[in-house]
Design a protein that fits this description.
It contains eleven helices and six strands. With 236 residues, the chain is mainly α.
Length: 236
Amino acid sequence: MEINIEMQRAFMLRWANMIDRCDNPKNKMYHRYGGRGIKVCQQWYDFFQFISDLPSDYFAKADLDRVNNNGNYEPENVRWATRAENCKNRENNRFIELDGKTKCISDWARGLEINVTTLMERLDNWSIKDALTLPKGTRLYNRWDRHVKSSERLAQLAKPKKQLKLYTYNGADYTMKDLSKMSGIPSKLLRKRINERKWPVNRAIETGVLNNHECAKIAAKASHNKDISCQKYARQ
């Protein structure tokens, strides 16, 4: 196998990672390699010997995979594999059989076009048949199920209906809205007359609404009376 610069760099990266996973307890993957007793054969600590022992069928972006996942890194136990093939060969991979077909979880998930995590949740909550056959988008559960409350709790939370205040006019009871429709006076003005100014209901309804011209006349008259009062006070 002829080795160019790009291949040598790729082999160097895989060689360094292989040794670090097996010998360095601080490596985040150590528990799956050195922590399980996986070792690098003595001759492969020599980088050039490592290159000479590698399989000749290398291809771009290939992973260095161990044929026996519980065996060591040594010439008889390695192969070049795709990332998907490498993942299938992990010690924590899970194989599931359905209708005579046995696949790992990642293959089942790929066939359903769903995430592996979603498929794991399905398997934890559904039967194997439902988990591996129901199409993408099927809900694991009704999201409102967790919010269902008992009838006793619902009774406690139930808000009493707001009682509308009634006003008596000509011997009959009316709501503020009804009085407003009857008189043509805005509810806000009626409420102000009855509740704030304490007008009798009859007066509040039967007193018409002044237009802008009439309001201006009253304001002008009030201002005139005030000026006269001030002048008298000044003369005294």
